[in-house]
Amino acid sequence: MPHTVLVVDDDRDIRDSLVDLLEDLGYAALSASNGLDALEILRTRRELPSMILLDLMMPGLDGHGFCAAQRAELAWAAIPVVVLSAYADADAQASALGVECLRKPLTARALVEAVRRYCPG
Amino acid sequence: MIMATANSDRIGFPDTEVSAEFLASAPVPIHCIDATGTIVWANQADLALLGFAPHERDAYIGRSLGLFHVDPRVLDELLARLSAGETVHDFEVRLRTRDGSLRHVVVSGDTQFRDGKPVASRCFSRDITARRHAAQSHGPRCHPTPTTAETVRMHDEFLSLASHELRTPLTVLQLQLDALRERAGDADRSTIGKLDRADRACLRLAELVEALLDVSRMATDQFALSRERADLAEIVAAAAERLLDPARAVGSTITVTATPVLGTWDRARITQVVSNLLSNAFRHAAGTPIAVTVTHDNAGAVVEVRDRGPGLPDGELGWIFERFERAASMRHVGGLGLGLYVVRRIVEAHGGAVAARNLVGGGACFTVRLPVAVA
């Protein structure tokens, strides 16, 4: 059973690129275009994802709102989150959330290293 | 039906019980319209925004969105952008509520497609009426000059938006290039060469975007360091190690000789200094060995980057660290010369100084002197 990674980003091209890359690597990938959709996936899936790649700036519920809701739910709180952000102060924002940050633009190598850290094997 | 499969991100109308309840009680006004602009779903916050009570849902659902918009052309533009597949952020509209009052609202939303055709758009609204009224209370002929704080805030907002908008397509480009390279495998030399050139162009574009954003930030003195106590030798060595691949790509080698120097530095910015100096060497002294040293004396820490390239034209040594200055001819070496200016500003923010000189026997040496500040 491959690890499942949830990609949350409002940019369709980025979502598709990340999903393609993850599936090429043998992972299963879910995607959502904002925090609300991502929470809905967590609510409705039987198997929770092994990690979440999360954009910060999204319409509706943004990355900060998603993190707050995710942590408020015991079953979801332990899912590791890695922020993918193009914000100039992305590192500081991720640090405030207590999660790892990959700054956009990012390379496939950086992404793969991060995913393998949380989804080994 | 809400779907989330391994290959799909299609989220349909919130028509499962769980999702409907979840979204219906969300504090953010949310509504869905179909391809004709008819409201097909709305949550309680959205009903309240337009002046409808929860039990009056049926009076709202099924009506045309146009009935509530004051400016038809603005609505047309919003719908056109949504139906073109664009994700809209903070699009400002004016709405007429049920009691006739006007609400200023910003809308963010996107559209779902099926078989290439728009099926439904979901819109998240935010009421900014109070803000608009406050702005208008100055009077129609009054155009107050922004205060310094407002100017800084506007500049900050612009930079934040510019960062996001410039880096997002670059991310897609980089990931697609990486995927193509992976799939190219043992493709012919010509294909690999094309990928290499595209990769380099992507990297240069990314560096340029970063430099432009940095220069813009520095131009308004919005440049704060985030210092931490650390070993400068470790920071410099790590920064150099990250550039071993790009060095190899231009036929250069990097050797680092570093003595530990404890002080308080902005790790990310010092990394940027080393990265910019090494990138400068790759560009102007490609194919030559590059030596990086970290030492200290009574005045503080000293970082040097030496190459064996053609050196710097004598007449331009004094101003190579100014904005947009570049010693080599534009015809021969690309770039706007922003990297060295950024180096100077970072070093000066640390209370240090940067200098460049030509080496006897050929090559250039860039010297960064940093005081060992105590946290």
Written description of the protein model:
The complex is a heterodimer of chains A (121) and B (375). With 121 residues, chain A is α/β, with parallel strands linked by helices. Helices cover 46% and strands 20% of the residues of chain A. Chain A has a five-stranded parallel sheet with strand order 2-1-3-4-5, sandwiched between helices. In chain A, strand 1, helix 1 and strand 2 form a beta-alpha-beta unit. The longest helix of chain A is centred in the first third of the chain and has 13 residues. The mean pLDDT of chain A is 91. With 375 residues, chain B is an alpha+beta fold. Chain B contains eleven helices and twelve strands. The longest helix of chain B is centred in the middle third of the chain and has 37 residues. The chains are: A alpha/beta (121), B alpha+beta (375). At the A-B interface, helix 1, strand 2, helix 2 and helix 6 of A face helix 1, strand 4, helix 6 and helix 7 of B.
Low-confidence parts of chain B lasting 5 or more residues at pLDDT below 50?
1-12, 139-143, 326-334
Strand order, sheet with most strands of chain B: 2-1-5-4-3
Low-confidence stretches of chain A: none
| Mean residue pLDDT of chain B | 81
The helix content of chain B is: 40-55%
How many DSSP E strands of chain B? 12
Described by strand count, sense and barrel closure, the largest sheet of chain B is: 5 strands, antiparallel
The biggest sheet of chain A amounts to: 5 strands, parallel
Give the fraction of residues assigned to helices of chain A.
40-55%
Instruction: Name the beta content range of chain B.
Output: 15-25%
Task: Give a quick rundown of the structure.
The complex is a heterodimer of chains A (121) and B (375). Chain A is built from 6 helices and 5 strands, in the order βαβαβααβαβα.
Secondary structure elements and pairings:
The complex is a heterodimer of chains A (121) and B (375).
Chain A (H helix, E strand, L loop, with lengths): L3 E5 L3 H13 L3 E5 L2 H10 L6 E5 L7 H10 L1 H4 L3 E5 L4 H8 L2 E4 L4 H11 L3
Parallel strand pairs in A: 1-2, 1-3, 3-4, 4-5
Helix pairs in contact in A: 2-3
Chain B lengths: L16 H8 L5 E5 L4 E4 L1 H6 L7 H4 L11 H12 L4 E9 L5 E13 L2 E11 L1 H8 L11 H37 L4 H31 L8 E4 H10 L2 H6 L4 E5 L3 E4 L1 H18 L5 E8 L2 E7 L31 H12 L3 E6 L5 E7 L5
